[in-house]
């Protein structure tokens, strides 16, 4: 147990002491997670909305595809993106491999199905009368969609939070396309993996605590929103 | 040409046709009632008229102009409002619900406040303004939905079973409000499964059976004027002369229940005082194991008989028949 408490104590010292490297890694993780969540939701939420609210040929197939992609192994996504961005790959000219942008791209690919599937599920449960009522009261298509989104807002918010959580905790793809380069593409998760393999348990523990704190904050924000909803 | 019309419209869901209407006109300053059993297509008809859904085939016309594209429908919906049978109210106050509707029409500020106040007053629910709409009774919610529609001052007001959750007093008050809307110049159309209600409050009646306009007078109803006194009376019902037994006098509706009419090839020697000659125009399954005949007796009358009676009498389309009904079987209301 000394091993653990020692790790925790040194971890706390690193965080409270404002260790520059730990802060840098934390900031990069947060930046990657926020940008990726924003982009993934920008794509996935409208996509899920369309699939959840409109009837078209192939709709069931689309829903099945989203749900299958939820379980897509992250290392496989990392591998595919690596292949695309590698020097000899189709997008190699962009020189994005081993940059934080590459990590964002991989995380977006992972998070879009989450945002889409959870959005579709959220809007499907909304009473069909919501859209019809908005329409009969003179709303255009967009205002009617907005009325549906408002009704589903708590479920939609949960979807966004789940996507954020997935992106923040992801390690496999970030390692492959980011390369875990110190001061450049080292995120909290890849740093924990590295520190553990190097036997620096204290650093790994410190970074793990930060990751936990971030996840906790996300959940608190979510509960705050839902608390307002219930009131 | 009416304000709002349907022309050769067909519509269905999941490959099943639920509505086929050749022609329907809603005129300004008039009230049309759509009657028919559950599942006869009343709600679908109202949704098409409300331009909430586009018909699979055919045309909806507003002021004689075809409503085709999504933006046409959006413009039309600024002038047409539908109150659904189980209306949806947003989870905010009653006042907010009306405010939202008015904001969709670009009406805000003091104008909106005055219009929503008036609408709530007209329905007698001025006191509900600050209540949460989700905590209302079914009857109150229906009134709020109607007030929300009235506040928009639509050119065409469509209502699906507007009095389904109302008590008798509220029902009368509600239809009087609709009559005020008619006098304002709006075109009104309401769906009801209450024939008496439909007859009493509409200028025109459309009967729907399996999504089609029924060519027969629904359930053989006629407006009439009863002479004073009580007992057996002779009245005119459309082209028919009828013996009825009633204590009522003045304007009334008489009904010949389709199950109480006896069909025979020749006049019967029986106690039935009412007998009319006619010809069979249509024979169809009634969906309840019997047969429905449409008989032209100067006016179309619906008669229900059994399959065996149809076979025994050897009836076909065009067969001349005599319809008989006892005086006591003629209903008066």
Could you explain how this protein is built, in words?
The complex is a heterodimer of chains A (231) and B (333). Chain A is an all-alpha fold. Chain A has eleven helices and no strands. The N and C termini of chain A lie far apart (44 Å). Chain B folds into two domains: 210 residues, 3-Layer(aba) Sandwich (Rossmann fold); 115 residues, RNA polymerase II/Efflux pump adaptor protein, barrel-sandwich hybrid domain (OB fold (Dihydrolipoamide Acetyltransferase, E2P)). In chain B, 26% of the residues lie in helices and 36% in strands. Chain B has a six-stranded mixed β-sheet with strand order 6-7-8-3-9-10, sandwiched between helices. In chain B, a hairpin with a 2-residue loop joins strand 1 and strand 2. The longest helix of chain B is centred in the middle third of the chain and has 17 residues. Chain B starts with a strand and ends with a strand. The interface between A and B is medium-sized, with 16 and 22 residues.
């Amino acid at each position: 147990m000394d091993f653990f408490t020692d790790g925790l104590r040194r971890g706390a010292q690193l965080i409270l002491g404002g260790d520059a490297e730990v802060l840098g890694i934390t900031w990069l993780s947060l930046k990657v997670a926020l940008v990726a969540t924003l982009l993934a939701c920008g794509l996935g939420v409208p996509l899920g909305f369309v699939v959840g609210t409109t009837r078209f040929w192939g709709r069931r197939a689309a829903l099945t595809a989203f749900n299958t992609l939820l379980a897509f192994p992250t290392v496989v996504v990392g591998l595919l993106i690596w292949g695309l961005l590698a020097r000899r790959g189709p997008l190699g000219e962009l020189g994005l491999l081993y940059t934080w942008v590459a990590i964002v791209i991989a995380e977006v690919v992972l998070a879009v199905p989450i945002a889409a599937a959870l959005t579709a599920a959220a809007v499907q449960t909304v009473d069909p009368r919501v859209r019809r009522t908005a329409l009969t009261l003179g709303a255009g298509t967009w205002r009617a969609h907005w009325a549906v989104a408002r009704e589903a807002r708590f479920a939609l918010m949960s979807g966004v939070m789940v996507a954020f959580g997935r992106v923040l905790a992801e390690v496999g793809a970030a390692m492959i396309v980011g390369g875990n380069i110190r001061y450049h593409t080292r995120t909290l998760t890849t740093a924990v993996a590295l520190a553990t393999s190097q036997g620096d348990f204290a650093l790994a523990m410190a970074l793990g605590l930060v990751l936990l704190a971030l996840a906790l904050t996300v959940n608190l924000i979510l509960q705050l929103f839902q608390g307002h909803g219930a009131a | 040409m009416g304000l709002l019309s349907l022309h050769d419209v067909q519509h269905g869901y999941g490959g099943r046709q639920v509505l086929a209407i050749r022609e329907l006109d809603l005129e300004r300053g008039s009230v049309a009632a759509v009657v028919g059993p559950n599942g006869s297509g009343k709600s679908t008809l109202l949704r098409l008229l409300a331009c909430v859904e586009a018909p699979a085939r055919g045309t909806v016309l507003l002021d004689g102009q075809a409503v085709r594209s999504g933006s046409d429908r959006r413009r039309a919906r600024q002038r047409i409002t539908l109150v659904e049978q189980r209306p949806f109210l947003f989870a905010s106050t009653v006042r907010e619900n009306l405010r939202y509707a008015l904001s969709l029409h670009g009406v805000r500020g003091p104008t909106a406040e005055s219009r929503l106040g008036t609408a709530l007053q007209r329905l007698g629910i001025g006191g509900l303004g600050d209540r949460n709409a989700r905590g209302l009774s079914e009857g109150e919610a229906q009134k709020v939905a109607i007030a929300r529609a009235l506040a928009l001052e639509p050119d065409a007001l469509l209502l699906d079973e507007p009095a389904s959750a109302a008590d008798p007093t509220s029902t009368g008050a509600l239809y009087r409000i609709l009559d005020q809307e008619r006098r304002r110049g709006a075109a009104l159309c309401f769906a009801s499964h209450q024939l008496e209600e439909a007859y009493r409050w509409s200028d025109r009646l459309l009967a729907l059976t399996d999504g089609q306009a029924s060519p027969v007078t629904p359930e053989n109803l006629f407006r009439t004027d009863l002479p004073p006194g009580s007992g057996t009376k002779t009245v005119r019902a459309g082209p028919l002369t009828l013996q009825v037994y009633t204590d009522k006098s003045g304007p009334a509706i008489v009904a010949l229940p389709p199950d109480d009419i006896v069909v025979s090839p020749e006049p019967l020697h029986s106690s039935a005082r009412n007998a009319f000659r006619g010809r069979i125009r249509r024979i169809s399954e009634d969906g309840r194991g019997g047969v429905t005949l449409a008989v032209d007796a100067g006016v179309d009358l619906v008669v229900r008989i059994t399959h065996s009676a149809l076979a025994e009498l050897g009836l076909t389309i065009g067969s001349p028949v005599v319809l008989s009904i006892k005086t006591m079987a003629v209903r008066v209301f």
